[in-house]
């Protein structure tokens, strides 16, 4: 049997509820800077994944910018400074996840440990998955562990994950606004010129880094196994790799 893999498939991230202390962008930003993402890759996914330190953009597209893709890189000193500036030292927050799926449970535990190191106390709420979704839809919890993927490389695909002004749902931040973000997303959606779109979505990604409506954690690998006689199997790249099965009509058997 041969295993075909792509490290950057679907991904894990955090969403925030601005109804509580996370209305302050400094505290959201502090969370993003307090997490050692490689520990999630190695501890939760056994090394089969990759760090996600910003908005998920495929390196195969012209919208990828290495600096912006790593704008949420680990920086505990800056995280502590932001917490102090926000007057939130020793704050206690509730992280919503689930005990039903190991990748959600273990990600939550790692995040809890890392935030404790910078002075944020985290209590965990981890019911079964259906209860977790219901609680998320109701807006319960201060922030939440999420796991999703994208079906297209168009940069607008991430809009449903990063714009907290959209209708409330369990997988998206809520109860706060990012100044100018919704307008930029609408502008990018309507623009057809590649260079102009690149500039627009670079601004979008900068706003996400600054205001943190989305906190990237890690990609998780996509894998397809096949018998050695199966030939001509090809993996689709990055975030759309889970849909590689759509290429099965190209297979041959020797």
What's the short story on this structure?
The protein contains nine helices and ten strands.
SSE diagram, text form:
Layout: E1 2-6, E2 11-16, H1 25-33, H2 37-45, E3 49-51, H3 66-69, H4 76-85, E4 92-96, H5 102-117, E5 121-125, H6 129-137, E6 143-148, H7 159-162, H8 181-190, H9 194-211, E7 215-220, E8 222-226, E9 230-231, E10 252-253
Parallel strand pairs: 4-5, 4-6
Antiparallel strand pairs: 1-8, 2-6, 2-7, 3-7, 9-10
Helix pairs in contact: 1-4, 2-5, 8-9
Structure overview:
- The protein is of the alpha+beta class.
- It is built from nine helices and ten strands.
- The model has no long low-confidence stretch (mean pLDDT 96).
- It has one domain: Dipeptide-binding Protein, Domain 3 (Dipeptide-binding Protein, domain 3, Roll).
- The strands form three sheets. It has a six-stranded mixed sheet, sandwiched between helices. Strands 1-8 form a two-stranded antiparallel sheet.
- The chain has helices at residues 25-33, 37-45, 66-69, 76-85, 102-117, 129-137, 159-162, 181-190, 194-211, and strands at residues 2-6, 11-16, 49-51, 92-96, 121-125, 143-148, 215-220, 222-226, 230-231, 252-253.
